[in-house]
Design brief:
Blueprint lengths: L1 H17 L9 H8 L8 E6 L2 H4 L3 H9 L5 E5 L7 H4 L3 H6 L4 E6 L24 H11 L8 H4 L1 H12 L31 H9 L13 H15 L3 E6 L4 H7 L1 H17 L3 E3 L11 E3 L2 E2 L6 H16 L1
Parallel strand pairs: 1-2, 1-3, 3-4, 4-5
Antiparallel strand pairs: 6-7
Length: about 325
Amino acid sequence: MVILFAFTLSFSLLLLVLNNAEPQLVSHDFQKEFYFQDFDPKIKKIFLIGSSEVHRLNATYIENHISKHVDNYKVYNIAIHSDTPQRRIASLDYIVSSEPYMIVYGTGTRDYNSPRPVATSDSLPDNALPNPPKIFELTSEIEKFIPYDFTATQTPKIHILRLIRDSIDLRTPEVTLDMLKTNTPFMKYGKDWYSVQTEKELEIFYQQHIWFGIKQPNSDKSVLALNQILYSLNEKNIKTILVTNPSPRGELEMIGSSDLKIFEKTLQDIADNNSINLTFLHEKYADQPIFQGGNHVTLNPVGLIYSEDIANIILKELES
């Protein structure tokens, strides 16, 4: 009984900590201020949407590239740190209300990386202490009835380390009101984002990470959320392009060919169902020295190849 009480108390405290370990840095109220500002009605808006991987796209470079071929387009990078389709869907009404002409949605394997126990509860010996696989099975069942994402509890080490990092101000600085008028309103740039990691540094980086696998698409919450987002944009006649985020070779090897095939097929099915164009970029730059931190493309000029490709993808869609 004492053990059960101690575990319940500890688990409750863990939930409390992890619930704030990876916060959405941009509140919905702040986002609303951006989306409902007085945009020039003569200018067609193009939104780049996704997480910090998408944030590495240079909106100014893309806009300048596009303006050489077409007029009256403004590109905004509205990526948000740690964004996922599940989180983004909460601000979908705001996005639609701002009447963008086109949306480029960047998504990666991380959005669908779901912890799963390596052993079933039945295959492990009896133990008086709580059994992690049984807990994971229980939280999966609870998620069906309450709107809480227990994913963080299944990877506490990573999230606690992030919390420590944030507490000593190593995370991207908080966004401010003066950013609302810029073309990248929801994230500030870090000075170290201009560096480039060596092949050895990337190898060490991925040795410290764990790939848990991708759930079956018919039950994955992020897959369902992404499909709902694209369906809603389609209904509003907002042109939409789906692209995959760049990955270095080390990440692709960590994920493995089996999960990559699931990832690609799932996105292709979603794109086909919503009649939108999909471009796979996750393997295109795998062996190029353009990554700053894991799968984040550097802001150094060598990383502009990513922005240039996105600009050409947009142009192709505009001219079709």
